[in-house]
């Protein structure tokens, strides 16, 4: 399909099939079921495979608790770093549609390989009993190869799907703009419905049927995700790639330092294209802002900046919009940094929360046992409860008092979630204190499951779910809205890297704590048998870090200036 057959909206999105009347037949909520269906199935696949991974490492690859926890954190972290690759390709060259399609194929290949590594004799670990298995180096390597192929595949999907869904709503249309904010809530709800099935049904399959089926069903779900995505092709609005964002950023930096000694004039004297549209494909012009004035030097026009035939050398002279793109990214970085500690708290659900629950009584009735990893279902139920409450009750009520279209600002929403995450860590720490007191009182040290119901973990999971609705959804919307138009996939990827760095931070803290607490032959905070440990110290440590993080966030939020495309109200 040729470029001449495209219809562009004000914010850079494009409808294919040249007739303007077609615009009313594409995008908005009519295109979203296919995107939400894709996300539901992909998240079902991801969480179905990852929720119980720490116990697969421990019992089938024969890793100790600390190593299994670190390996899960490192792999999960990689899953949230690779989106930088997918985002760059989407924004610069491929567009979001092609990026999602290409990386989905890698994802399915990785899921298939993981299924084979857990089900085919010779490729799967040799087991003496259910939880007593031994994997060769080659078998472990095959498992990790499959996992890191999945990490690469998800790198092209995570940063693009949410942005692609938001692209279906035009910022120039007030009705569609309101729906865009609501889209992020329902997008996150679809993630958690997939996670709900994964952490209940699929974890049960892994524990009671086989790991081959436990990984095979997620592989099938991922194949269905691809079918759902392609089914909506004719309804999508697509944004044309704007060229390499890294090149544009480098051009601003180089042009700035070339004019190090040049004095910055008034903003009206800075260089900008005369056209109503930005010179950057798929991007609106941005108003000049007064902070980071040093970079305005790149937009100061000198005679030496002109090339032959009146053209401009972009490595010597940049537009105001291009300079403002860099400023927007710089403004995002402090907000981004405050998400790392929250992500470290969030990562405990797939590591230490599971190991904590594995030492508690999993029985429901006389015979049925709920796997420890399935307790994350209450995080999911919390999200499913809070998303419609927030969207249908909290936002309309807050809107009456604040007059803000979304009820509260994105930064206010994120701050509330950071506060709730502190309560989640305190809840987990207090539970562990009570649990260890019972262990000492009744000498339960060697019991596999002490007689204390695993459902005492529900409050900590529920609180993290509530924190997610405020912080993670707020962060998803914030980074999409505040990133420059031609860098929105990169903005989404940037928000996802906080999850990666949070996992790495958690892994680093576990390593430091283990090294420090095991000196002199002590068992340490996180031994294989947590009945001899002090995991509550680790939870208190995260709570203290979260308090400091919240204080830093409040100062950053007060300083932050929201992006202003030309024509919007200040």
From TrEMBL:
SUPFAM superfamilies, A to Z? MFS general substrate transporter
Q: Give the bilayer topology.
A: Multi-pass membrane protein
First-listed, main subcellular location of the protein, grouped into a coarse class:
membrane
Question: Which is an annotated GO molecular function term of this record?
Answer: transmembrane transporter activity
Q: Which residues cross the membrane?
A: 100-118, 138-157, 186-205, 211-230, 332-355, 375-395, 416-434, 454-473, 493-514, 534-556
- Please name the InterPro entries in this protein's record: MFS_trans_sf, POT_fam, PTR2_symporter_CS
Q: Does the keyword Acetylation apply?
A: no
Q: Does the keyword Nucleus apply?
A: no
Q: What are the BP-aspect GO terms? A: oligopeptide transport
Task: Enumerate the subcellular locations listed in this protein's record, separating them with semicolons.
Answer: Membrane
For this UniProt record, give its keywords in alphabetical order, as a comma-separated list. Membrane, Transmembrane, Transmembrane helix, Transport
Pfam families assigned to the protein according to its UniProt record, in alphabetical order = PTR2 (PF00854)
Q: Which GO terms describe its cellular component?
A: membrane
As for family, the record states: Belongs to the major facilitator superfamily. Proton-dependent oligopeptide transporter (POT/PTR) (TC 2.A.17) family.
Q: What is this protein identified as? A: Protein NRT1/ PTR FAMILY 8.1-like
Q: What is the lineage of its organism?
A: Eukaryota, Viridiplantae, Streptophyta, Embryophyta, Tracheophyta
């Amino acid at each position: 399909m040729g470029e001449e057959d495209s219809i562009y909206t004000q914010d850079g999105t494009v409808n294919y099939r040249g007739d303007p009347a077609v615009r009313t037949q594409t995008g908005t909520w009519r295109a979203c079921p296919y995107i939400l269906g894709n996300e539901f199935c992909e998240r079902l696949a991801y969480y179905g495979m990852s929720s119980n991974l720490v116990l697969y490492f421990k019992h089938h690859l024969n890793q100790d608790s600390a190593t299994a926890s670190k390996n899960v954190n490192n792999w999960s972290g990689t899953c949230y770093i690779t989106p930088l690759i997918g985002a760059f390709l989407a924004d610069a060259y491929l567009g979001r549609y092609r990026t999602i399609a290409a990386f989905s194929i890698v994802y399915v290949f990785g899921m298939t390989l993981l299924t084979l590594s857990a089900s085919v004799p010779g490729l799967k670990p040799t087991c003496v009993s259910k939880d007593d298995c031994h994997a060769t180096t080659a078998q472990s390597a095959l498992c990790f190869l499959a996992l890191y192929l999945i990490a690469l595949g998800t790198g092209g999907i995570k940063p693009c799907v949410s942005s692609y869904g938001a692209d279906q709503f035009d910022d120039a249309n007030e009705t569609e703009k309101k729906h865009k904010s609501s889209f992020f809530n329902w997008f996150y709800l679809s993630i958690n419905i997939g996670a709900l099935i994964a952490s209940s049904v699929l974890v049960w399959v892994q524990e009671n049927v086989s790991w081959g089926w436990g990984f095979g069903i997620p592989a099938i779900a991922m194949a269905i995700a691809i079918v759902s995505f392609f089914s909506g092709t004719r309804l999508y609005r697509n944004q044309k790639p704007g060229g390499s964002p890294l090149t544009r950023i480098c051009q601003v930096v180089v042009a700035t330092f070339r004019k190090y000694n040049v004095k910055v004039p008034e903003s009206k004297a800075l260089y900008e294209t005369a056209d109503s549209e930005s010179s950057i494909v798929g991007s609106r012009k941005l108003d000049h802002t007064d902070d980071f004035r040093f970079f305005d030097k790149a937009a100061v026009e000198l005679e030496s900046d002109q090339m032959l035939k009146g053209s401009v050398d972009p490595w010597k002279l940049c537009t105001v919009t291009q300079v403002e793109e860099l400023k927007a990214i710089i403004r995002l970085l402090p907000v981004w940094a405050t998400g790392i500690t929250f992500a470290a708290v969030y990562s405990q659900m797939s590591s230490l929360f599971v190991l904590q629950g594995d030492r508690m009584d999993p029985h429901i009735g006389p015979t049925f046992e709920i796997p420890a990893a399935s307790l994350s279902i209450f995080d999911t139920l919390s999200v499913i409860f809070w998303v419609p409450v927030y969207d249908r009750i909290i936002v309309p009520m807050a809107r009456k008092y604040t007059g803000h279209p979304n009820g509260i600002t994105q930064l206010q929403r994120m701050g509330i979630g950071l506060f709730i995450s502190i309560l989640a860590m305190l809840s987990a720490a207090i539970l562990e204190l009570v649990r260890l007191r019972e262990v000492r009182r009744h000498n339960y040290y060697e019991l596999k499951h002490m007689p204390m119901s695993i459902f005492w973990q529900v409050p900590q999971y529920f609180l993290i779910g509530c924190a997610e609705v405020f912080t993670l959804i707020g962060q998803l919307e914030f980074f999409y809205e505040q990133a420059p138009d031609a860098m929105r996939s990169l903005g989404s990827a940037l928000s996802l890297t906080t999850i990666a760095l949070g996992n790495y931070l958690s892994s680093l803290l576990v390593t430091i704590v283990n090294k420090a607490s095991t000196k002199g032959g002590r068992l340490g905070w996180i031994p294989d048998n947590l009945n001899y440990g002090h995991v509550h110290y680790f939870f208190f440590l995260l709570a203290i870090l979260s308090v400091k993080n919240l204080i830093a966030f409040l100062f950053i939020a007060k300083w932050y200036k929201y992006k202003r495309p030309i024509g919007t109200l200040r």
